Amino acid sequence: MSEPANKALFSYPPQAAFGRPLPKNKLYEKSGANTRLKDLFVAQVDQIVWQYKLAPETINLPARPGVPEVQVFSIHLKTPELHHDVLRCIDGAVQFPIVFELNHEGRTQMVACHKRPSETDARQWVCSDYFASPWQPTNAPRQALPVVLDLAALYETLLRTLIPLPPRPQEKLADLVLRLGKLNALQRDIQKTQTQLAKEKQFNRKVGINALLRQLQNELTSLKE
Questions:
Q1: Cα dihedral sign, 84-182-180-155
Q2: How far is residue 86's CA from residue 76's CA, in Å, rounded to a whole number?
Q3: Are 126 and 99 in contact (CB under 8 A)?
Q4: I need a surface site. Which of 5, 11, 85, 145 has the fewest CB within 10 A?
Q5: What angle do CA 175, 178, 184 make, to 5 degrees?
Q6: pLDDT in tens, 97-140
Q7: Could you tell me if 71 and 97 are in contact, meaning their C-beta atoms sit under 8 angstroms apart?
Q8: Any idea where the domains of the chain sit in the sequence?
């Protein structure tokens, strides 16, 4: 499997173009969104377009279990940031892996999670945290899709370009995603422990907090290796 060497956006083949606007209220209904989530859609999202459909009949790659198709959704934003709960709502309403392109004031960002069928119920989908590329000019040159053998390999390659953690030799995507999740949780624990240490006045408690902090930092280093 060849992997792109940079963070450029991808150029999707014209025969895969779909170009269908998606009404926000339809996504509300399918996902059972609450009032808070609806308010996020209204405040942050201008338009959602189902831009491309990467499927056996459009890009001539065979489907694989868990990746029958890959959809590309273009989201035009009212604000510079989009809450990930909005993306989770869309992912929950659409039963295919999705790659999002967020657009705001002439800039575009690629965002996706690792989305897979549940091991206990194939009708349910499990989503990881979201990964994102840097914001780039919308009209910047795009790179061709990677050369792969099937849609599962295509989806995996697209995701790997977004994950900010170098893979270990022969590391599977699911294991890489899990390691990144642990790393992010550890970083949050380290920040909390550092804040606790800065506030603590008693010397003996500072010693204990320092020891915990060193342990967490060692675990973080191990996860990064």
A1: negative
A2: 13
A3: no
A4: 5
A5: 140
A6: 999 999 999 999 999 999 998 888 877 889 999 999 999 999 99
A7: yes
A8: 10-164, 177-224
